[in-house]
Amino acid sequence: MIQHQIEQKLRSELSPSYLKVLNESFMHNVPEGSESHFKVIAVSEEFDGKRLLVRHRMINTILADELANHIHALAIHTYTEAEWEVLDNERVPTSPNCMGGGKG
User: Fold this and answer.
1) Under DSSP, is residue 71 helix (H, G, I), strand (E, B) or coil?
2) Contact 5/13 with Cβ under 8 angstroms?
3) What predicted TM-score, i.e. pTM, was given to this entire model?
4) For 38-62, b where at least 16 C-beta lie within 10 A, e where not — what string?
5) Over the chain, what is the mean pLDDT?
């Protein structure tokens, strides 16, 4: 299960205080039960002092195998503890519905 792999790798590498991995494949034109489109919300001290691009590269590096072989799309939302508190926990942007692949 790809979602479980993602969660395990991110927990191991980032020790997040909060981690949510959402399989958003159902929002896209893929077969039922697919694991190809994900959203990651991670809060970690590892992000302290790092720019957004660096944080995203960290996630991409950790999930390099999954991105190369299984994941078609990955939305990444990374926060420091302080940023997460300001957001009032879980006010994360919603993902748009897919408009490609025959949907419209």
Assistant:
1) coil
2) no
3) 0.81
4) bbbbbbbebbeeeeeeebbebbeeb
5) 84
